[in-house]
Amino acid sequence: MKLKAPATLLWSFFIAAGCTPGLIGAAPSTEPAKYAIKIDGQPLGTALQALAKQSGVQIIFFSQITEGLRAPALEGQLTVSAALERLLAPSRLTFRVLNPNTIEIRPPDADNSQGQRDAPAAKGGKTRVPVDPHRSPRENAAAQSSAALDEIVVNSTAEGLVATRTQTPLREIPQTISLISQEQIRQQNDTELADALNNAAGITVVRNNSLSSTFVSRGFTVTTFHLDGGAALNSFGNTPIFGTPDLGEYDRVEVLRGSDALFGGLGSPGASVNIVRKRPLDTNEVQFSAYGGSWNNYRAEADVTGPLGFDGALRARLDAVFGDRDYFFKLASLERKKVFGVIECDLTTRTLLTVGGSYQWDNASPFVGGLPFYADGSDAHLPRSTALGFDWSRYDTQTREYYAQLQQRFGGEWKLKLNATSLDTAASYAYGEFNSPIDPITKALPILPAAIFSPSPNTQDQFVFDGTLTGSFNLFGRRFDVAVGGDYTHFTGNVPVQALLAFGTPVSNVFTFNPAAYPEPQFRNSLFIQSRATTNQSGEFASARAYLSGALSVVGGARVSTNRSTNTITPSSPVFIERSRDDGKVTPFAGATFDLNEHYSLYASYADIYQTNDGVRKIGGAILPPADGIDRELGIKGSWRNGALNGFIVLYDIEQRGAAVLDTSASFADQVTYSPCCFLPNGTNKSKGIDAELDGALAPGWLLGAGYTFNNNQSLQGGALSSATPRHLLKLWSSRQLQGELARWTIGGSVQAQSRNSDNGLLCGVQGQVGCFGSLLSNRDVQSSFAVINVRAGYQIDAHWVAALNVNNVFDRNYYQTIGTPAGGSWYGEPRGFVLRVDGRY
User: Residues 562, 468, 128, 643: is their CA dihedral positive or negative?
Assistant: First the structure.
């Protein structure tokens, strides 16, 4: 495959620029806009929603503060602020403009002095300096640009991974949602999705190699990924692309733990991940960050955004990243370049078009395979700097992305949202790896290394599209929120591989391994395999939320999914073709939320998801139906400080029913005739536990992200479903701006603590595989419970610049991030290291 030149990214900008013919030549206005408003006397909450529809301005508030209040009738040509003053006059509520497109309704006792550090998130998740509704947009922009700098981001709503795909307060979502804000990403120096999820509550990151990881939630590997809440990507290798995505393009990460019934369909019941892209801002802003750290880890990023013209109706954003790093283990390195651009166009007051794209180049020297143990499974205690890699190894990728979004608001409270994304990746590589345990007496590696090359670039191409219509209406005096839509994913992968199963000479002593003794092998009599995979997935979904009383709401919905995939592997005799076909698979979802008081809500939910059984067959040739992943939750949620602080405690119980197990009654003839055969859908994987989380602003300038998870999982084969998942997992992150004379300082840090990985998990990988070398040992025999502590101190140099020092693993805890098999796959956690960072904003 030949990827298009990066200059094609500019094509999207010309497309968007041409979408504004009605705006060209329009004179900029300095007067507040007036709208034809007509609202009947009705409950205040619905009156505010009607004003939002008629003006196109987003009005956010929590339903509790408008309960029992009514608004007077309103009609005429009015500004939004004038209309709000009249609607709110009978109450003691106030309003504050967060930006020209978003207004917050506040209770009368709200502490307005908290300013930008305490505001709930507006669209895109950023808080703003208050904007005067009587000033023009340009005057407001000037006021914002001169305001204090160290912006604190607080997310109190999620959009995309929720029951109705509408912006919804976390307290009203009857599922387990975690948000990783831009501020947390910045303070913890997260550069890839794996970094962010490593800091996410309840998620275990399992390292595959120096470049990529898989993610485990509640004992199940995460296989469902969304961009901007759109159709699920095909997670080839359990990640959206080779490696994990760079975060320069993204604003925040949303994690839905449990089954993604409506918008995932096909996947595991552990979790799904939604990555939200950055969007253009309506004020000019330039951000720059650069850092340097241990092991030659350097990165620089520039982010420019603002209006291009037409009185702010045309906005753009451009982000560029350059990174170059080594690792604490030898030989491995990564150089990355990425550019991301997006443009937004207000075609009308109700129509928003977004077009963007990115291009990423990675050039890496990888370490593949991890570290081995002794043949009996005991720890060899190799130095943390050890890497059984080769100086000729390389892994070079190019990733191209285009996307477009259209949002159209209609009369009333209806909105149509369309998303389309094209994502292509090509990879060229050559690397070697060992797959040998260590001889406990001689310290030798008795098995020779293997070498793997790409004779031509390996490619993955996928296109995803989705459309969702959301809206609200009143029936029998009750409010109903509905969502209907569908999505489609097309994926193709072409993976030619040339392998040399053994080369060089045996390693006589792993402690003195010398990569120079293994020059790049020449491919004589090597094995060639090519895999061509095609997947087509589609689904239609519908859901409805009914507000049965002021305290009780119920939501229900279902998705109907179709999945067809083919994987052809050549050369082989006969040609091996793996087919999977699931038609009309229904995955239901139901939930209920009951408000106990202004701060607490009870919720219960049931969600389904399905996992294909990869086309294996029963006796007689019938394809095994997919396995169901059923997630049941019961919990209590809390929200404080007008949604700036959110928390929950939840009990969950997951069963994956219908997994394939061998049919021992099958004859040899059956196995040959109906290959791949023969299986029964009788397997059950189980996981249950407790999640507890508290996220947001404890006080002005004090941010907290804390999560505790207890998990007990069991595989259909017996033992742990995931030996990587600890029974107890605690993640705590906090950042506090000091007061008084020390107000320029922000201090914080994080703690990650876990119990031993499993009481009965064997050293056989993530999913309880069999076939280990020698005697099987439990993970507890290798690693007991441990905690890793990181600290940070930031200093506000002036109104534009901030410097910060992070020290990670302060006490230099020696631990394994990932425990594999005796033959390899174990990875140390990072030793003590530092990162010095500078951020600028204008």
Answer: negative
CA distances from 481 to 160, 540, 765 (A): 15, 18, 44
3-class secondary structure, 519: coil
CA dist 184 to 15, 328, 626, 696, 804, Å? 34, 24, 38, 10, 13
Distance CA(133)–CA(136), nearest Å, equals 8
DSSP 775-841: S--BGGGT---EEEEEEEEEEE-SSSEEEEEEEESTT----EEE--BTTB-BEEPP-SEEEEEEEEE
Please tell me the distance from the alpha carbon of residue 537 to that of residue 491, in angstroms, as a whole number: 9
Q: d(Cα 371, Cα 386) in Å, to the nearest integer?
A: 8
**Coil, strand or helix at 648:** strand
Q: What's the half-sphere exposure (Cβ side, CA atoms, 13 Å) at 834?
A: 5
Task: Name the β-bridge partners of 533.
Answer: 493, 567
Per-residue confidence (pLDDT) for residue 670, from 0 to 100: 65
| Secondary structure letter of residue 206 according to DSSP | E
Backbone region of residue 818 per phi and psi (left: phi > 0; alpha: psi in -120 to 50; beta: other values): beta
The C-alpha angle 234, 204, 378, rounded to 5 degrees, equals: 115
141: which residues sit within 8 A by CB, 6+ positions away? 282, 283, 284
Tokens encoding 173: 């979502």
For residue 129, the model assigns a pLDDT of 39
Helix 80-88 and helix 44-55: axis angle, to 10°?
170
The DSSP H or E segment spanning 137 is helix 137-145
**Residues of the chain under the 70 pLDDT cut:** 1-32, 63-64, 99-100, 108-164, 166-167, 235-243, 412, 524-525, 572-576, 670-675, 758-781
> E strand or H helix at 143, and its extent?
helix 137-145
191's tokens: 């550069």
Q: What is the full DSSP assignment across 732-757?
A: EEEEEE--GGGTTEEEEEEEEEE--S
CB contact burial 209-222 (16+ within 10 A = b; e otherwise)? bbbbbbbbbbbbbb
CA distance 266 to 497: 28
Q: Round to whole Å and give the CA distance between 53 and 412.
A: 6
